[in-house]
Design goal:
Strand order of the largest sheet: 15-12-14-13-17-18-16
Radius of gyration: 22 Å
Strand content: 15-25%
Number of strands: 18
Helix content: 25-40%
Number of helices: 15
Largest sheet: 7 strands, antiparallel
C-alpha cells in the first residue's frame, strides 16, 4: 500500500469508526506484530476497531475495492500465528464488539458479539443456573469469535464437545462486505455451512455475531487427583477409565516437566517434584449415583501403582487443582525463557507409545518437552522449551515440534485438535492430506474468499515442495 493510498484509507476508516479507533503509527502497530505464537512476527499496515457489523462491512468494502488484504483478530491468544499480519495486512480488531446481545433461557441459547470473552458468558448466566461449556485454558482472556475461528476445545470437551458442537448460528461479513446469516434456529437444510466456517481461521470472512448453545449447570461435580511415578501407569489408567464405560467431564494429564513448571508458577498445589505424572479426573451430572461413578474411577486408578489418589474435599480444593492445570502453559515461563505449544491428536490407545517417541524427539534435539494434555480424547499439548537467544535453538524447537506432529499423524491422529494450523503448521498439513485433498479445501475456501484477501497465506502450504506425501488417516479424537 503506497503512502497516498494509505492516507486515503486512514481518512475513510476514521469517518466510519472514529479517529481514535484507527492505529497507523509504527509504535502503536508494534503491539499487534504477533499473537500467542511468537516465532513469526509481522507488523500490520493499519489496525482498525469497528464496533458493529455494519462498520465491519463498510471497512471490508473499502479494503475489497482497493484489493488490500486484511485479517480479523480477537484477543490475540491464538497459538498458531493465525492473527499475525505476515505481509503488512490490515488488522480488523473485534475487541470493541464485546456485547452479550441476548440470552434465551427457555431455548438455551445466547447471542454474543465476537469480542465477548469466553468466561464472561458463563459468569453472566451463572446466577440463572446456566453456563457455556467450551473452556479453553485461556478462557479468562480469549474471545468467543476467536474460539469460532480456531474451533477451540478445552478440558471438558471430552464429554461436551468443542466449539462447533455449541454454535447454532453465525452472522458473517464476506470478503466483499456482504452480510450473511448462517445457521440459526431453525437451521435451513443443505450444506453444513456452520461446519465450514467454524475452524476456518478467518479465511472465509469475519464473524460478527454468534448464537451459541448454553447448558444447565450439572447437579453435582466430583473431582479426583491421582499421582503416579510413571507416565505409562497413568496412561493405562486413562484407557481403563474409558474402557469401563465412564465418560468423564474431563480427564487431564501432566508429566514430570509440566509438574515442575506448574509448581513454580502462581498456583502451586504441592505436587512432589519427583512425580512422573498427574491425572485430574472429573465427573458431573445428576447427583444420584455420581459418588459411585467416582469410586469406580478411584478403583481403576489404584490398579496401576498409583502413589496417591484422592477426591477433592470441597469446591475450593477442586478450584485450586484446576487453576494449577489451566495456567500450565504460562507457568512454563518460570522454567524456560521460551516455549512452543504443539497441538497433536492421537488415539488414546497410542498414548504410551507417542509419549515415548516424544521423549526420543526431546533427546534428539536436546530440548526439554513438557507434556500437558487432554488425555481423555487424545489431544496432546507438548510444550517445547528453548531459549531464543541461543544460536539455532529456535529452529531446533520448530523442527522438534514438526517431528512431534509427524508422530501423531503416523499413529493415525491429526496435527491439530483446537489451536488451528495458522502459520505454524502449514507445511505439516502434508502429514495428513495429499496435494489433491488440500486443493479441494482451497476450492471450498475460494467460494467464500475468491480473491484470497481475507487472512491470506494461512493454513495451506505453498505447492511443489518435494516431500513424501502421506495418505490420509483417520483422526480418532478431536479436541
Amino acid at each position: 500500500m503506497d503512502s497516498q493510498t494509505k492516507a486515503s484509507i486512514i481518512k475513510r476508516f476514521e469517518q466510519i469508526v472514529g479517529p481514535r479507533a484507527v492505529l497507523h503509527r509504527y509504535e502503536d502497530l508494534l503491539a499487534y506484530e504477533c499473537d500467542g505464537y511468537t516465532v513469526h512476527k509481522g507488523v500490520p499496515s493499519l489496525v482498525v476497531f469497528p464496533k458493529s457489523t455494519q462498520e465491519v462491512s463498510e471497512v471490508v468494502q473499502i479494503l475489497y475495492q482497493n484489493r488490500i488484504p486484511y485479517l480479523p483478530r480477537g484477543a490475540g491468544t491464538g497459538l498458531s500465528g493465525g492473527a499475525t499480519a505476515l505481509n503488512g495486512e490490515v488488522i480488523i480488531s473485534l475487541v470493541r464488539m464485546n456485547k452479550l446481545i441476548d440470552v434465551d433461557y427457555l431455548n438455551k441459547r445466547a447471542v454474543v458479539q465476537p469480542g465477548f470473552i469466553n468466561l464472561k458468558l458463563s459468569n453472566s448466566i451463572s446466577s440463572k443456573g446456566y453456563y457455556y461449556a467450551p473452556d479453553p485454558s485461556s478462557q479468562a482472556a480469549c474471545t468467543i469469535g476467536g474460539n469460532v475461528g480456531e474451533n477451540a476445545g478445552g478440558a471438558h470437551c471430552l464429554k461436551y464437545g468443542v466449539t462447533t458442537n455449541h454454535v447454532i448460528g453465525l452472522e458473517l461479513v464476506l470478503p466483499d462486505g456482504e452480510i450473511v446469516q448462517i445457521g440459526g434456529v431453525p437451521d435451513a437444510p443443505g450444506y453444513d455451512l456452520l461446519g465450514f466456517i467454524t475452524g476456518s481461521e478467518g479465511t472465509m470472512g469475519i464473524v460478527t455475531e454468534i448464537t451459541v448453545r448454553i447448558l444447565k449447570k450439572p447437579e453435582g461435580i466430583l473431582t479426583v487427583l491421582a499421582l503416579y511415578d510413571e507416565v505409562d501407569d497413568a496412561s493405562q489408567a486413562v484407557s481403563d477409565i474409558i474402557a469401563a464405560g465412564i465418560v468423564p467431564a474431563a480427564l487431564e494429564m501432566m508429566d514430570r516437566t509440566a509438574i515442575e513448571g506448574v509448581e513454580s508458577g502462581n498456583y502451586p498445589v504441592g505436587y512432589p517434584r519427583d512425580l512422573g505424572a498427574v491425572l485430574i479426573v472429573e465427573v458431573d451430572g445428576i447427583a444420584a449415583g455420581l459418588q459411585e461413578q467416582i469410586d469406580h474411577v478411584i478403583e481403576v486408578c489404584r490398579r496401576y501403582r498409583v502413589r496417591e489418589v484422592r477426591q477433592a474435599k470441597n469446591p475450593e480444593e477442586r478450584a485450586r487443582w484446576w487453576a494449577n492445570r489451566k495456567t500450565a502453559f504460562g507457568a512454563m515461563g518460570t522454567i524456560s525463557p521460551d516455549y512452543l505449544v504443539q497441538d497433536g491428536v492421537i488415539p488414546r490407545s497410542k498414548l504410551p507409545e507417542v509419549l515415548s517417541r516424544i521423549g526420543e524427539v526431546s533427546r534428539k534435539y536436546n530440548l526439554r518437552i513438557a507434556n500437558v494434555f487432554h488425555a481423555g480424547d487424545g489431544n496432546l499439548h507438548p510444550l517445547i522449551l528453548y531459549n531464543s537467544k541461543m544460536d539455532g535453538e529456535t529452529q531446533r524447537a520448530i523442527q522438534a515440534g514438526s517431528e512431534v506432529l509427524k508422530v501423531c499423524a503416523d499413529v493415525g491422529g491429526s496435527i491439530t485438535g483446537e489451536h488451528g494450523v495458522g502459520v505454524e503448521k502449514m507445511e505439516d498439513m502434508r502429514f495428513i492430506f495429499t496435494e489433491e485433498e488440500m486443493e479441494a479445501q482451497i476450492r471450498i475456501r475460494d467460494v467464500f474468499n475468491p480473491d484470497n484477501l481475507c487472512n491470506p497465506g494461512k493454513i495451506f502450504p505453498k505447492p511443489a515442495r518435494c516431500v513424501e506425501l502421506k495418505q490420509p488417516k483417520v483422526a480418532y479424537a478431536n479436541s
